[in-house]
Queue: 3 jobs
Job 1
Amino acid sequence: MNIGIKKALKQIETGKMEEGLAQLKKVNKTADHETKYSIAEIYYELGLVDLAKEIMDELVLLYPDEGELYTFMAELLIDLDQEDEAIEILLEINENDHVYVQAQLLLADLYQLQGLDEVAELKLLNAEKKVPNEPVVQFGLGEFYLSRGDYLKSIPYYKRVIASEEELDGTNIELRLAEAYSATGYFEEAITYYREGIKGGKIIDDHFGYGYTAFQLGDYPTAIQQFETVIDMDESYSSVYPYLGEAYEEEGQIHEALQIIKKGIEIDEFNEALYVQGARISLNNGFVSEGEDYLRKVVAINPANFEGVKMLASLLKKGERYDELQELIYYVKELGEDDPLFDWFLASAKWVLDEYEESLKLFEQLANSLSHDSDFLEEFGQVLLEGGYQQKGKEMLKKAIDIDDSKTHLQEFLFHLNE
């Protein structure tokens, strides 16, 4: 290495930045072209991209056939947010140049950044054609397809990288494969790679992916362990809470499930899924008041949350709180939410509240849209019978039985009606 450059580097390393840069500038004035290139590299490493580019502008003009200069210049242009200029210079590199493959990889990145995925893919395939067994190119193709969501396409490329046993800047290929397999529903294959890959370090998304895959396989203890790790790393990782709550529930740890739901809501008070989940777990375990509280809150946050409205309406109907049921349905409908199920709840409430004509009208309007719901047909039949429409009421009950032959109580009821 040039003595002047050594002196400059020593000054920079000891904190004498200004003296070191002055020394580099002095050396550059009389340096040969190879030394100038070294100075440009030092400037680049120091983040002084403009100074590096000044040198490279000169060298590229002097050596128009040196592809290595072009790739370095392209990297400088990328750092200067001059992507179009970087593309232009990379396209000038000849196919027979030893940096051609590197240029294709850089072009692929640039085109993908510009949303030109088809062109980016072509550049990567060009590189693969040139060096079919090069792990860096195989990795590039794997990354490209993974980033696009073409998980199945990415898998064989990552597997070739693993087979090559080449390290790629510490990239954990096992975890890439685990992600790809999990995203395509191949959870058994994914879990194997997660078990191996997770040993390589603590990256929060990888722990979540491992937990999610274990969750899908019904391995709830592993899922809980991984999800808890995610929360230890960052408790604001809100998407983990519904899965962890359900995993605890599946393990019969109801208290822990409800506690994690509460914690999740503290982190993300507008996470509707957590309220619905908290309600479901509470109601399934006899905590009716707590369940209703969750449902009231989710409906207040978003009256369009169909599951929340449905669960609350069902709870009110089961508790024979028909005034409140009617009030709830009117509330969500006034806000523009509409669904046949809501009208069914309203029809049920009006029937019990002696608003028979309005109830019957609603039931008749719903007859087509809910014609395959045996519970609806059963209730409609009872309303018709109560109104004196015996024949039509019996027809509805018969249809309910045809759809669900487990309704033996209706068969007995019809038998007594016909006696």
Note: The radius of gyration is 34 Å.
Job 2
Amino acid sequence: MTDLNAIGKFILIAGLVLAGVGLLLLVAGRVPFLGRLPGDIYVERGNFRFYFPLMTMILLSLLLTLILNMLTRR
């Protein structure tokens, strides 16, 4: 019976994480400056386009690090 409890908890947590990621993706499109920060790399030549959101990824990484550190410290 304990194996079923562990599997059930894992599936529940995985579902919550997946729902959280989905919510973030829905909200991310509504933030006007996200993806257009200075430092994001965008190259367009003819029919070739390359976009690399470097500064956006750094900013999100710092924000998530701060949030996770606050949640894990007791």
Note: The chain has two helices and two strands.
Job 3
Amino acid sequence: MQDYFISIFYSEEDGGYIADIPDLRFCSAFGETPEEALREVQIAKEAWLETARTGGKPIPKPMYRPAIYRLATPATFSAT
């Protein structure tokens, strides 16, 4: 099963970590640690999806991939 990509980064401005799901517009969360931000964005993701379902809104398929994975070919990750 493919799941949504989650980006976690430190925000100097906010003084903590931001977790973001690019495929789900405006779905992000804050935490004092990366683990807390991840837990919080998982909760936000479930709320986002439930709101879309109950509101009859389309739910996007997981599509976002960081540039490093879009540019790499399978041979790039070969063990040889």
Note: The longest strand covers residues 7-11.
